[in-house]
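Problem: given the chain below (214 residues), write out its structure.
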Amino acid sequence: MRIPKHVGIIPDGNRRWAQNQGMTKEKGYDSGLDPGLDAYRKCRDMGVEEVTFYGFTTDNAKRPSYQTEAFTKACVEAANRLVKEGAALLVMGNTNSPMFPKELLPYTKRIEAKPGQIKANLLVNYGWHWDLNTLADADKVNKNNIQEYIQSFDISRLDLIIRWGGRRRLSGFLPVQSIYADFYVIDEYWPDFNENHMCDAFNWYNEQDVTLGG
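Solution.
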């Protein structure tokens, strides 16, 4: 079976799930923590080398404060759980913004991977425009090594992106690294995650004709 080296996870549907459960929207974020750890473990056990989770974006930060506080707290907890699980963690996002949680600053430099560890990236207060801002000055860009000019230079090219919640869009998810990624959509909401979702996505990826344009 052909295993993707780098898997992206877009864990959408937390708020819709909470409303369906008769709860307020912000209650859905805590219910996404266990699925995140399960997805990480599945990637690790399948032989994936790197996994990236979408935490929240600079656009998400415009939501009501009771929601931003809830998903920020969930991201901090997710980072701590990943480190405890043994991930070589990198938190990527605009650290100059007051929306970036200070608790995650120690993780903005890659934790060195040890034997048996895989890289885990968590996008927190991430925005595609922030990531690509340096590219705006095109005259100074070395076209042969364009990756030097993006904030997320330490994150590798994605092979497979899996999105929960039924939406069929990238929502600004790592536009440079996503350029040749296969995109798999799961209609169930993220808190309803189960291992079969990952198995189905990996089986689907195995059947794709990956040519990278060649």
